[in-house]
Each structure stands twice: as C-alpha cells, then as structure tokens.
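Can anyone check this?
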Amino acid sequence: MRHRKAPELARLHERIARLDADSIDQLYGLEPVWEPGLAPEHLLPVEFVPVRCPYCGERLESRVDLTSDEPAYVEDCEVCCRPIEFEVERADDGALKSLRVRRLD
C-alpha cells in the first residue's frame, strides 16, 4: 500500500526545491558570499590600495572589501588614530573604480 503525501507537504517540498542561493540569502537576511569559482577571473574579493591620511599625511595601505555592498566605511589611521571615511566606487562588473578618503570633522 502506498502512502499519499499531504497537499501541504507537497507544496512545501515544491517551494524548497525552487530556492536558489540568492533567495535563501534574502530570506535569512544574509550578505552574499564571494565564491572563487563564480567570480570573474580579474575580480579579487579584496584589494590593497595606497592612500594618504587626510589628517597627518602619512601613506597607508587600505584593505578594500569588494564583496561588501556598503559604498562607504570608516577606518582609523594607523599612525594618528583619527577616523577616515573611505568612499568606494565600483565599476559595473564589481571591480574597484575609485577610492576617496576624507576627514570626518
């Protein structure tokens, strides 16, 4: 004798089968994950960019996370410890287009 699936269970099974990575991320409020095999060859998840502190003038290497959706972030200067705002501009393919630094005062 065969058991029949309840209609609710069948509908749930269909909904789960249709989920992809993007819809799961959206459902749980997760940030996208950088997948090495799925990103374009030339695009790295992180770039190190030389910048000059707008307070003390010291040259720094800033780590820019290209997987983040945030257009700006704040990081303290390694020398004078003052907060610097970094504004990231990306190209259409996600690569780093420009990085602007400015004082917060």
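Reply from J.R.: I decoded it. The helical segments are 7-18, 21-28.
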